[in-house]
Specification:
Keywords: Membrane, Transmembrane, Transmembrane helix. This protein has 327 residues and is mainly alpha-helical.
Length: 327
Amino acid sequence: MLSRVFGFGRRAFDSLSEQEILALAISSEEDDGRIYRAYADGLREEFPQSAKVFDAMAEEEDGHRAALIELHRARFGERIPLIRREHVRGYYERKPDWLVRPLGIDKVRDQAEDMERQAYRFYVEAMKRTSDASTRKLLGDLAAAEQSHETLAHRLGDKHVPEDVKDEERTSERRQFILTYVQPGLAGLMDGSVSTLAPIFAAAFATQDTWQTFLIGLSASVGAGISMGFTEAAHDDGKLSGRGSPLKRGLASGIMTTVGGLGHALPYLIPHFWTATTVAGVVVFFELWAIAYIQNRFMETPFLRATFQVVLGGALVLAAGVLIGNA
């Protein structure tokens, strides 16, 4: 760990020979080509036009790598030293965001441009480390190419991903986010916030024991979260509906269900009954407001209608709990 933080065991860039600089450039171009192909593979199913952008960028990196190998063969022979970016102190690193699924389109395009800027700076510094005319020329040409490629994602995007397709892809990405996370999470939050109102407030007014009320609220919230999570994950595998991973949807629903119930259960850790009940009532107000906001923000439900539905339903359940608790 310390070696990664402080660079112990790594070579300083200034200590590299011309052959090692060429070897580093070759391995870097190879890695970048693989990263672009990983981006393309991650986008191909849902965003085929954007995948073409990164296929083309990978081909560009292959061309750079081939030119560097030919130069190395002419100057130093067939054996290329094994040196990679992680062996050089201060050399730029690539965060493994190409392993994350799903890939965000705009984030990937920004990352691609950042990769090209880093490669440009490397070639500029590498030129300073060599005196051979042919090597300097190739490194200079590659630096110029990388500098012009800072907007390669956008230039290729104009060809493969016109603005209307980009808008369509962003819409599709947002829709997938809503289907996989927002809808299950909202359903869980509504269930956890509303359905636990009656048992928690019924227990509170029936016992006027804050600790017992908290335990009932905790068990109701956790139990509802487990139930909602398993139900969401089990009833739809997402393949036909397009709603995404059942595991992600189950976690979103289960966690938000538990959070919704715990919101007005936690105040009963306060030992004074009326203080705890007042705080719980305030929390319920904010929970219902949050549900109405999410419905309006992501589900495009008119805010007044969402507020009316949520407040009316919550008020009825709360009243039922209080009446039952006082019976």
